[in-house]
From TrEMBL:
It is found in: Cytoplasm. It comes from the Bacteria. This is Adenosylmethionine-8-amino-7-oxononanoate aminotransferase. The lineage of its organism: Bacteria, Bacillati, Actinomycetota, Actinomycetes, Streptosporangiales. Pyridoxal 5'-phosphate binds at residues 124-125, 258, 321-322. Catalyzes the transfer of the alpha-amino group from S-adenosyl-L-methionine (SAM) to 7-keto-8-aminopelargonic acid (KAPA) to form 7,8-diaminopelargonic acid (DAPA). It is the only aminotransferase known to utilize SAM as an amino donor. It catalyses: (8S)-8-amino-7-oxononanoate + S-adenosyl-L-methionine = S-adenosyl-4-methylsulfanyl-2-oxobutanoate + (7R,8S)-7,8-diammoniononanoate. InterPro entries: Aminotrans_3, Aminotrans_3_PPA_site, BioA, PyrdxlP-dep_Trfase, PyrdxlP-dep_Trfase_major, PyrdxlP-dep_Trfase_small. Homodimer.
């Protein structure tokens, strides 16, 4: 039995659990056994994580960008417990339930107007798999099975399952080891950096030429709108997203937008695509959708896509997860969306953006720093060389903050409910880490 008293765990029990964790529990992108121990979290509330020794850390990552309302929120807790009293799960094949219908209604109302059909998925990765499958099956249903490739840009990240890996950066991404066994798609160079940068006509011409050269074999274009997340935390100008929409229209392609990281206000607009005023044919949403409580995502599409698939040889979309539209997840997702819309989330994100900008800009002059960039509730310090993750995390923890660097990046995506003072603590921690580079 785990021994826990007054928010603390005994040193003996902490040591035992961490030793077992190191030897038996595989963590994301980590060796086995682990190269260094994980931090043991025993509770979380607001924007703070409580460790086994009773110390607290401001979570600068919002649990990988999902816990936008923080932790242990009474309204989200109530949504889960109320639903639990009704039913925790029921199969979605041949059955439905009010919670899923209500969430679908919220998503259709909230996303761009052409998106009217909702497919619930287990996770963001699965939502992208479904989006890819939708695009491929759509063209097969039209008798155009030769349209079987996707156009995307380097520097992207769309998930860890095989369909997703094939549209992540094939050289510098996390999945290059599998390049020889994945479908071969068409990659354009990454969009030039800079949200406010003037569009590069040479780059646009390259996009146009690439799309034209492969138009007959392309099913869709897939990108992360405005912000490329785990592929490098790169921000690009809205004009490039508009150009991709135009290319999709010109060549009759579908446009898939992966809004899993960018959706629900993270970039300062409700959806990343709102920056460019474009609408996709297929959109993936997740992460913040459930407020970090449950794993759930969704893939939305237009009537055209849904009808095209349903008129084809299969007559159905060939996908159906066991836990599809899980009532607990759907209940907390609806509550999370309602909570977001009940507050002035835009003002919250704007305030975070201002504090991140003020607190991180000075790091630009540090010798180990290559770039500093901020957009919405996203702050990034890019180092000149890959960072020592344990060393950076120790510095941040000494400042009372939790961050999770990767590659050359020390970044933050804090919960929207962070106060200015809490965001200031995060920027102080990142600045201190940048000074150490």
């Amino acid at each position: 039995m785990i021994e826990l008293r007054l928010g603390r765990m005994s040193p003996h029990e902490t040591e035992r659990l961490l030793a077992y964790d190191r030897e038996h529990v595989w963590h994301p992108y980590a060796p086995m056994p682990a190269a260094y121990p994980a931090e043991l979290v025993v509770s979380a509330s607001g924007v703070r994580l409580t460790l086994a020794d009773g110390s607290e850390l401001i979570d600068g990552m919002a649990s990988w960008w999902s816990a936008v309302h923080g932790y242990n929120h009474p309204k989200l807790n109530a949504a889960v417990t109320t639903q639990l009293g009704k039913m925790s799960h029921v199969m979605f094949g041949g059955l439905t339930h009010p919670t899923a219908i209500g969430l679908a209604e919220r998503l259709v109302d909230l996303t761009p107007a052409p998106l009217t059909k909702v497919f619930f998925a287990d996770s963001g990765s699965v939502a992208v798999e479904v989006a890819i499958k939708m695009a491929l099956q759509y063209w097969r249903s039209q008798g155009r099975s030769g349209r079987h490739r996707l156009l995307t840009v380097r520097g992207g990240y769309h998930g860890d399952t095989f369909g997703d890996m094939a549209v992540c950066d094939p050289v510098n991404g996390m999945h290059h080891l599998f390049a020889d066994v994945m479908p071969q798609h068409v990659f354009a160079p990454p969009p030039p950096l800079g949200y406010v940068a003037e569009a590069d006509e040479t780059y646009l011409d390259e996009l146009r030429a690439l799309a034209a050269a492969h138009a007959d074999e392309l099913a869709a274009i897939i990108v992360e709108p405005i912000v490329q997340g785990a592929g490098g935390m790169r921000f690009y100008a809205p004009e490039y997203l508009q150009a991709l929409r135009d290319l999709a229209d010109e060549h009759g392609l579908l446009l898939i937008l992966d809004e899993i990281a960018t959706g629900f206000g993270r970039t300062g607009e409700l959806w990343g695509c709102d920056h460019a005023e474009v609408t996709p044919d297929i959109m993936c949403v997740g992460k913040a959708m459930t407020g970090g409580y449950m794993t759930m995502a969704a893939t939305l599409c237009t009537d055209r896509v849904a009808e095209g698939i349903s008129r084809g040889e299969a007559g159905v979309l060939m996908h159906g997860p066991t836990y599809m539209a899980n009532p607990l997840a759907a209940a907390v997702a609806s509550a999370s969306i309602d909570l977001l819309l009940s507050r002035d989330w835009r003002d919250e994100v704007d305030t975070i953006e201002a504090v991140l900008t003020a607190g991180l800009e000075g790091a630009r002059d540090l010798p180990g720093v290559a770039d500093v960039r901020v957009l919405g509730a996203i702050g990034v310090v890019e180092a000149r060389e890959p960072v020592d993750v344990p060393a950076v995390q120790k510095i941040a923890m000494d400042h009372g903050v939790w961050v999770r660097p990767f590659g050359k990046l020390i970044y933050t995506m804090p919960p929207y409910i962070c106060t200015e003072d809490e965001v200031g603590h995060i920027t102080d921690a990142i600045y201190a880490a940048a000074e150490s580079l």
